[in-house]
Write a structure and sequence with these properties.
The protein is of the alpha+beta class. It has helices spanning about 1-5, 15-20, 30-45, and strands spanning about 50, 55-60.
Length: about 60
C-alpha cells in the first residue's frame, strides 16, 4: 500500500511492483501481484486501488 501512496495518481504495472517490492531477481509469476492486490482490498474498508485494465494498478483519487 505504501508504494501506491508514494505514487499517487501513477499507474504501477505488475513489473514495476515486482521490481520495487520483491527485487529484480524474483523468479515467480507476475500474477502473484494480483493475489496481493486482492488481499489488500479485503483488508481495506474501501476499495482504494483501481485496476487499469491491461496496464496495472493505481491508488484511487478519492482515497
Amino acid at each position: 500500500m505504501a508504494e501506491f501512496i508514494r505514487n499517487q495518481g501513477r499507474v504501477l504495472t505488475r513489473e514495476i511492483l515486482l521490481s520495487r517490492l520483491w527485487g529484480y531477481d524474483f523468479l515467480g509469476d507476475e500474477r502473484i501481484v494480483d493475489s496481493h492486490i486482492k488481499n489488500l482490498r479485503k483488508k481495506l474498508p474501501v476499495d482504494c486501488i483501481e485496476t487499469i485494465r491491461g496496464v496495472g494498478y493505481r491508488a484511487a483519487k478519492e482515497a
